[in-house]
Design goal:
Strand content: under 5%
Number of strands: 0
Largest sheet: none
Shape: globular
Structural class: mainly alpha
Number of domains: 1
Distance between the termini: 42 Å
Length: about 280
């Protein structure tokens, strides 16, 4: 059963909404000046470990599990990234308690984890294109850079739009904050579902994150959060409180333990351990 016949199955909808919520929370929790000063460190933390681990897992799964190279890299980019659903809420909680704020540690780790996932989603799409021969080889190779460009353009565009429209100093009451939350949330969900429909899932995740960063930065510059600076983050905290069990429950429902063989599980664990080392 689908939400709309050609868009998305209902059982996947909660996963996509939860992804939008956690990426929006991550975007709202980023300090752009700190992020810009530490951009080199964020790039290294977000790219190097994931790429190296994905390559390690891909090599192991190719020779141990006898996977084709495209499928091996698909597995690598599934295993390698961190889980933002685990990392982001804990980092935001530590930031609220004041841990590492002066050195910008929460911003660095949240940004790195988000970049890590966006890149892994994009590279998984590239590997999937090679595995099923979608389009030309050149287009498969260019999919990653295209997703970055499209995701940033769409996300920054939406963020600037809502950041400027709801950017008046007189719009700092709770009703206006609720409207900002609705626009940010709906925009993130639409971006993720829209790009997913066109098989550019990485662009959707990047657009959702960058729209939240852009809009929140504009709102902070105008000090429209002055009466209650944490209320927008609090709204998304409540949304995450609802969708977190739905996310992990939906993922758990997709696992069929009856199809697993002990030998394959053991070899898979070896691939993960060796690839991680």
């Amino acid at each position: 059963m689908t939400l709309f016949p050609v868009i998305i199955p209902l059982h996947c909808l909660s996963i996509q909404i939860a992804l939008a919520i956690i990426l929006t929370r991550a975007g709202l929790g980023l300090d752009l000046p700190t992020l810009w000063k530490r951009k080199g460190l964020v790039l290294r933390l977000g790219v190097c470990p994931t790429v190296l681990e994905a390559i390690g897992v891909a090599i192991c799964s190719h020779f141990i599990l006898d996977f084709p190279w495209a499928w091996s890299f698909m597995l690598g980019f599934v295993v390698a990234p961190v889980s933002p659903a685990v990392v982001v809420p804990r980092l935001l909680a530590l930031r609220e308690q004041g841990y590492g704020v002066e050195k910008g540690i929460p911003t660095i780790i949240i940004a790195s984890a988000s970049l890590d996932n966006i890149m892994a989603i994009s590279m998984f799409g590239v590997s999937l294109g090679f595995a099923f021969s979608k389009g030309s080889t050149v287009m498969s190779i260019l999919q990653g850079p295209l997703e970055i460009i499209m995701g940033l353009a769409a996300g920054v565009g939406w963020g600037v739009g809502i950041g400027l429209i709801f950017n008046s100093e007189h719009q700092n009451n709770r009703n206006s904050t609720a409207i900002r939350a609705i626009m940010t949330f709906c925009g993130g969900v639409i971006l993720i579902l829209g790009f997913r429909y066109f098989d550019y899932s990485g662009a959707g995740a990047l657009a959702c994150l960058s729209s939240a960063v852009t809009a929140s930065t504009l709102w902070r510059l105008r000090k429209v959060f002055s009466p209650d600076p944490d209320i927008l983050c609090w709204i998304f905290y409540l949304l995450w409180y609802v969708f977190e069990p739905l996310l992990f429950g939906a993922i758990g429902c997709q696992i069929d333990l009856g199809t697993l063989e002990a030998r394959v599980v053991l070899l898979g664990l070896i691939c993960i351990v060796v690839g991680s080392v």
